């Protein structure tokens, strides 16, 4: 195995079946490596996006609706009504408290479940990213100039395409 870069069109990449012989195979292999590197950059952005979504669930859980026995916006209308009819038209504090606690429990459970699912998705994306990163590193370690340039150009293209998407999140 050579320990210096060479520009040959004969190289074995990653597996025995990926044995490149000739210029056409090298062009196809460089294109595949370029696409894998673009996918690697897209996975980085996707993982960051999932992390931001997960963080928003943690820092901004659904706020429960708080009820007061006499809302200020309806206070003038209630004062105009007679005593007994105003009480029959307004819900009691006990029924509101039970509804509020149920809503809080449901929102908390749903937020926790969503946060957990987002964490699992982020972990799976991380596994893919690390695996793909090591595969690309091994491609570069073939010491072929064309494969190396394919990885570099794929990284540039992937960064150029993917990272502006972070501004829209």
How far the N terminus sits from the C terminus, by CA atoms, comes to 46 Å
In angstroms, what is the radius of gyration?
Answer: 30 Å
- What fraction strand? under 5%
- Mean pLDDT comes to 77
- Order of neighbouring strands in the sheet with most strands: 1-2
Percent of residues in helices comes to 55-70%
The figure for the number of domains is 1
Choose one word for the global shape: elongated
* Major sheet description: 2 strands, antiparallel
Q: What class do helices, strands and sheet pairing give?
A: mainly alpha
- The helix count comes to 5
Could you tell me the number of beta strands?
2
Q: What is the N-to-C order of secondary-structure elements (H for helix, E for strand)?
A: EEHHHHH
Low-confidence stretches: 63-82
What is the secondary structure topology, with strand pairs?
Layout: E1 10-12, E2 19-21, H1 23-59, H2 75-80, H3 83-89, H4 93-140, H5 145-162
Helix pairs in contact: 1-4, 1-5
């Amino acid at each position: 195995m050579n320990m210096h870069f060479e520009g040959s069109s004969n190289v074995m990449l990653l597996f025995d079946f990926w044995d490149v012989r000739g210029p056409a195979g090298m062009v196809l292999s460089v294109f595949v490596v370029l696409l894998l590197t673009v996918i690697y950059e897209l996975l980085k952005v996707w993982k960051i996006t999932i992390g931001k979504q997960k963080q928003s669930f943690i820092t901004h859980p659904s706020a429960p609706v708080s009820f007061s026995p006499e809302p200020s916006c309806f206070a003038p209308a209630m004062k105009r009504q007679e005593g007994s009819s105003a009480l029959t038209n307004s819900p009691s504090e006990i029924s509101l408290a039970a509804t509020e606690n149920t809503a809080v429990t449901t929102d908390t459970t749903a937020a926790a479940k969503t946060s957990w699912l987002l964490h699992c998705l982020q972990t799976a994306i991380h596994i893919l990213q690390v695996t793909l990163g090591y595969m690309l590193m091994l491609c570069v370690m073939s010491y072929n100039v064309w494969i190396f340039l394919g990885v570099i150009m794929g990284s540039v293209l992937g960064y150029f395409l993917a990272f502006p998407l972070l501004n829209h999140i």
